[in-house]
Known about the structure:
Elements: H1 8-17, E1 24-28, H2 34-40, E2 47-52, H3 55-64, H4 66-70, E3 74-78, E4 91-97, H5 101-104, H6 108-117, E5 118-129, H7 136-149, E6 153-159, E7 164-170
Parallel strand pairs: 1-2, 1-4, 2-3, 4-5
Antiparallel strand pairs: 5-7, 6-7
Protein name: Methyltransferase domain-containing protein
InterPro entries: Methyltransf_25 (IPR041698), SAM-dependent_MTases_sf (IPR029063)
Pfam family, one: Methyltransf_25
Amino acid sequence: MVLQTIPARIRWSVDLMDVQPDDHVLEIGCGPGAGAELICSRLETGKLFAIDRSESGVDRTKRRCQRFVDAGRLTVRQIDLATLRVPVKRLTKVYAFNVNLFWVRDCADEIALLHERLMPGGKVFLFYEATRPEDVPQMIERTSAALAQGGFRTQVVQRKVPACVGVIGTR
């Protein structure tokens, strides 16, 4: 099997999450599985539930992270966040990278779902690769507003190289 690298932007974002061995994490938009691999490598008794709307994203994550699926630390499903019924009682963290849902359209229902399923003190980590710097202020403003309206306290983090921004919401 070919060793797949984990991009610096994904390492940075997962490092900021401070994944603990017993965390219960939801990843929205797992794509090629780099985030899932890094998150699962830090879990012991915790679990990751990864979702993606695309069949290819789900397949790629399952292939890349098969050892975590086999160990019971990772479940991957093809589903949209709006129709998700989270299979764990309570989440400690939610992670998404380059999922534009939170700044492109109304996401009040999705934010409400996350607020309901996160434990008090739980966090939502929404990251974007800032390939178009002119979009960053709008991304921050809309994402922060959506989280705040959903009952989250927000903070913004940025990385210069590669240029990334994150909005973190705390329940």
